[in-house]
């Protein structure tokens, strides 16, 4: 059983989604976990202690004070747990958690917990979109807590939008992944900004200049960084790659200029920047408003230089650890080392189109990594494995 012997403390707060907690408790117990439930006083309006204690096979606590003058120790509850899950987490409970407003058993237990904390928010769409909720979620993430984002759909108010608590299967998966992952959380608390994929530079409304990048390398890096505990901002050009990892925030862009703009929206927050995108170096000077007609035998398109996103990141670097890529076809090492220096990088990953199975489109890549003082060569591997090698190397550099 995948949760055998795990001690899961569930804190339920007062929202309609509380009814879903029954399914989750049953699932955790079936998988071998021990489940202890605590609730805010308002949660009792939505679910009963009896139904929950029947499923969890333990008494449910809602108050500091038990029967006959006993004391429900929040400290004992907190220290017992391997993980704490707050689900559903209302706007009120979230706000109390991040601001230390310790006026009930759930918050006192949360503040005494030393274990990882998972939060599954649930509220109406406008409350979820409110700047104060967004800030509170960011604060919770900055404490290292895992947010299991609310989903889109019909809400108790009858409105449709984002705010529904994640389905029990999604929450269970996040927790099982956590327990079953043997990946060390070396990037916990760090924000990693990754560029991926190609950029498309419009010629007219139907044509563009692009390249063969699929985005695979960048998405593999994003997945691996998030498995290591990082919050990932993934800025990708057009790509059919998908991700649904809760720690990856995907921003889709089309052109180099859009990618530059998006990168600098988040750059200050990033601890590590990784530029795996194949950015078009040039873009048409003018974009034709209408589809260009096939009149003459020749067509000349004037191109102008695109911004060099990574070079700008290097120039504006304050605390970031910067990783560039070099895609080369000749004088590979020399060119890669020149880019490392010119773009003010901490390390560069070289892939050469002369190596079979390396570079774009393939599921595989073959890389060499350079820092100003080191060089390391790797075999041909899947891009998922290459992402691990790159982040292992980053880990060792960050420890220096
Ligand atoms: O997407 P896949 O199909 O998986 O393929 C992966 C990949 C081959 C695209 C990837 O491994 C890779 O090599 N990416 C960098 C491609 C590239 O544009 O290399 P470059 O040597 O031209 O650029 C050097 C560095 O500057 C790169 O980090 C690039 O992202 C960055 N750059 C380049 C030009 C520009 N205008 N802005 C940039 O930020």
Structural summary, described in words:
Helix 1 links the parallel strand 1 and strand 2. The two termini are 40 Å apart. Helix 3 packs across helix 5 and helix 4 crosses helix 7. The protein is α/β, with parallel strands linked by helices and 400 residues long. Strands 12-11-8-13-16-17-19-20 form an eight-stranded mixed β-sheet, sandwiched between helices. Strands 2-1-3-4-5 form a five-stranded parallel β-sheet, with helices on both faces. The chain has a two-stranded antiparallel sheet with strand order 6-7. The structure holds ligand PMT. Ligand PMT binds next to helix 9, helix 11 and strand 16. In the N-terminal section; belongs to the HFCD (homo-oligomeric flavin containing Cys decarboxylase) superfamily. In the C-terminal section; belongs to the PPC synthetase family.
In summary, what is this structure?
Helix content is 32%, strand content 23%. It is an alpha/beta fold. It has two domains: 7-181, Rossmann fold (3-Layer(aba) Sandwich), CATH 3.40.50.1950; 191-398, CoaB-like (Rossmann fold), CATH 3.40.50.10300.
């Amino acid at each position: 059983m995948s949760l055998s012997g795990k001690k899961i403390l569930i804190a339920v707060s007062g929202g309609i989604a509380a009814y879903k907690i029954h399914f989750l408790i049953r699932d955790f117990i079936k998988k071998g976990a021990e489940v202890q439930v605590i609730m805010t006083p308002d949660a009792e309006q939505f679910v009963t202690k009896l139904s929950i204690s029947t499923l969890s096979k333990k008494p449910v606590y809602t108050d500091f004070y038990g029967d006959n003058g006993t004391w429900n120790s929040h400290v004992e509850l907190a220290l017992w747990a391997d993980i704490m899950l707050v689900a559903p987490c209302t706007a009120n409970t979230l706000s109390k958690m991040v601001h230390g407003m310790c006026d009930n058993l759930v918050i006192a237990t949360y503040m005494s917990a030393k274990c990882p904390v998972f939060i599954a928010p649930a509220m109406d769409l406008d409350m979820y979109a409110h700047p104060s909720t967004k800030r509170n979620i960011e604060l919770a993430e900055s404490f290292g807590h895992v947010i299991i984002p609310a989903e889109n759909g019909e809400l108790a108010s009858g409105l449709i939008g984002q705010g529904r608590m994640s389905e029990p299967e999604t929450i269970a998966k996040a927790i099982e992944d956590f327990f079953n992952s043997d990946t060390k959380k070396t990037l916990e608390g760090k924000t990693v900004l990754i560029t991926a994929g190609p950029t498309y530079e419009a010629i007219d409304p139907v044509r563009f200049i692009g390249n063969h990048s699929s985005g695979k390398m960048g998405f593999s890096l994003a997945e691996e960084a998030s498995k290591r505990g990082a919050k990932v901002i993934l800025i990708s050009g057009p790509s059919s790659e998908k991700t649904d990892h809760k720690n990856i925030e995907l921003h889709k862009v089309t052109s180099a200029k859009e990618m530059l703009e998006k990168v600098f929206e988040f750059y200050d927050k990033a601890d590590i920047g990784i530029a795996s995108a194949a950015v078009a170096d040039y873009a048409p000077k003018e974009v034709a408003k209408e589809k260009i007609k096939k009149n003459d035998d020749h067509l000349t398109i004037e191109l102008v230089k695109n911004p060099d996103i990574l070079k700008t990141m290097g120039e504006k670097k304050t605390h970031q650890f910067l990783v560039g890529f070099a895609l080369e076809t000749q004088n590979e090492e020399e060119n890669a080392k020149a880019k490392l220096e010119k773009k003010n990088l901490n390390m560069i990953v070289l892939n050469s189109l002369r190596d079979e199975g390396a570079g774009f489109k393939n599921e595989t890549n073959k890389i060499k990594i350079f820092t100003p003082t080191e060089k390391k060569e790797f075999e041909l591997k899947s891009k998922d494995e290459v992402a691990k090698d790159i982040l292992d190397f980053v880990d060792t550099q960050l420890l220096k």
